[in-house]
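Methods, example record. To illustrate the input and output format used throughout this study, we show the complete record for MmgE/PrpD family protein. The sequence lines were provided to the predictor; the line carrying structure tokens was produced by it.
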Amino acid sequence: MSVNNITGRIVWFAFTFSYEDLKPGAIAQLKKHLLDAAGSMLYAIKALTVEKMFRQPGFLQTSGSVDIPVLGNTSVDQAAQLCTLLVRYAAFMDNYLGKHATCYPRDNI
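The corresponding predicted structure is encoded as:
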């Protein structure tokens, strides 16, 4: 399959590759990025800004297709917003200059 646009290539990758297809170096980097993201999420969960977002009326739907641990079920778009907030909160306005990286590790998650 030949896909010329970036969105199409990302979709193709997501549907055709599996964990077993990844090279050992990519797996090692993935583990580092996941650990970095998880640490940021744990740190951010008690931040005042994040707590304010949780208190917004109707923030979490009582039914949805995504289960957020500790918080409950919500819609896909709200889950994405929450995860983005938690992952990026600690590094908001932060710069990352990695020798062999293209962006901040959490951005890759």
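Annotations derived from this record:
The chain has one domain: 30-108.
The longest strand covers residues 66-68.
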